[in-house]
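Re: your question from the hallway

Yes, I did run it. Sequences:
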Amino acid sequence: MDIEEKHKNYLKLLNKNEKFSDEILDKLLENCSKALSSHTEVYDISSLSQDDTTEIKQLYASLLYVFAQFVRNSQSSEEFSNFLLTECDIEKDRAQLLEKYYEESYNSIRMQLLNIGNYLPHITDVRWKIDYMVKSSTWDQSEGPIFRVSLKTEKFDSTLKGPKIEFIEFSCTGQELQDLVYKLKDAVRHCQKLANNHNH
Amino acid sequence: MLISLRNDHKEHLQLLTAQPEQVVADFCKLASDFLENGPTAKLFSTAASKLDVTVDVIENCIYGLINLLLIACKHQLSEADFRDSVLTLGFSENQETLLSKFYDTKKSLIHKINTKGLTGPHYHDLQWRFEVQLASRSMLQQVTPLITMDLALKTGSEISHQILQTDPTNLLHLANELEHALNQSRSRHSRKVQRALGNLQI
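Structure:
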């Protein structure tokens, strides 16, 4: 994994203790982990300092970049701090602070990155009801039970910028539902077998 | 039970009661052709010129015959009930034999059409495969289990495919919920209601 020189240079700004107090750095790091794990920023970057905020923005951008890159490559926090110490010459206590934030936000950033991509509609829930047909306009005989199934699916929608929920509705007879349940159970069994084999 | 027809329906069928058996048999054939291939103007006009009536009369008679069939099927008339109903309409016994035969051969076809009536998408088939996502652009190393499914739904005679996916936890939930539905349909409550509704004569 290669990190561009420009990012390394911006990270070296961390050594500028007089410009980046611990307080500012804490806020930057908190923002960074929140932005990557839940798309929210707690603080307004440009209001962190009275002076020119160019350097703050440069540092912030590089922090976002290296955090995302290291998580994307599944790097441990030791590897992260190693990179900061040897390749960017960051002071030890500053590197430790970054390492702490990296370790804490690793899993949530990872989850976020895992969710990025093209996915098919994902089934998250199911609703069902049982009907019994008593009479219809073309058929005097009663019939049933008939199962009305509604699958709740979620898919990321780019215009909504969030998950779009859709329901897939269908009906089936008892025999058909039996067939469906049998197939689903078969798939569940398969997953469980794989999980058990893995544990042993 | 005897079925009662609307007056105009009866009038349309009156044409046949006065005809010899051969004509009734021909009309059964015409109606049967109509059921399978839709209306054929040419056959109607030939019949009209033979009997010296307008095409409309022939058409109404064919429709009337088919409607008689639909009503009989809707009420699931037994052979005896059908015979009695036809005789009350003024058909002779020989004509009735022909119509009964016609009813008997078309019963299953009409039944098939009737039950197709009001139906939305219906479960047809499900295929699944178990996948593990190993990498993606945003996450280079991962092991994400996914179950991809092809749900085939049938609407009328058309089959549509829905490609869906889920994770093992939701799959388990889905399987358990649907099994629950299945068990619920066999519960004492469900069977009691079904029995009561099944015995109901409406």
